[in-house]
Amino acid sequence: MPALLELHGITKRFPGVLANDHIDLTLNQNEILALLGENGAGKSTLMNILYGLYQPDEGEIIVKGQKITVHSPNDAIAAGVGMVHQHFMLVPVLTVTENVMLGVESLVGGVFLDRKAAAQRIRDISKQYGLEVDPEANIKDLPVGLQQRVEIIKLLYRHAEILILDEPTAVLTPQEADELTKVMRSLVAQGKSIIFITHKLREVLAVADRINVLRLGKVVGSADPKTATETELASLMVGRQVELTVQKTPPNPTEVVLRVEDLSVLDDRENLTVNEVSFEVRAGEVLGVAGVQGNGQTELVEALTGLRHAFGGHFYIEGHNVTKASPRTITEMGVAHVPEDRQRDGLVLGYPITDNMVLNTYYIPPFAQGMVIQQPAVDKVATERVKQFDVRTPGIRTSAGSLSGGNQQKVIIARELSRPIKLLIASQPTRGLDVGSIEYIHGRIIEKRTSGCAVLVVSTELDEILALADRIAVMYRGRIVAVVDAREVTKEQLGLLMAGAQLNQVTQPNVSEIAPH
Amino acid sequence: MTAAPSPSSNRWQRLLQPMVIPALSMLTALIVGSLVIALTDLDVLAALRNFFSAPGVALSAMWNAIAKAYGALFEGSLGSPATIIAALQSGDPQAITNAFYPFFDSLVTATPYIFAGLAVAIGFRCGLFNIGVEGQLYIGAMCSVWVGFTFTGLPAIVHIPLAMLAGAAGGAAWAFIPAILKAKTGAHEVINTIMMNYIAFRLSEWLLSNRGPLARPGSPVPVSPFIEKSAELPQFFPDPIRFHLGFFIALGVAAFIYWFLFKTTLGFELRTVGANPNAAKYAGMNITRNILIAMCLSGALAGLAGANEVLGVNHNLALAFSSGYGFDSIALALLGKSHPLGVVLSALLFGTLRSGATRMQNVARIPIDIISVIQALIIAFIAAPAIIRTLYRLKDGGEGEGAVFTRGWGK
Question: Which of A238, A301, A501, B307 is close enough to B144 for a disulfide, judged by CB 3.0 to 4.6 Å?
Answer without folding.
Answer: B307
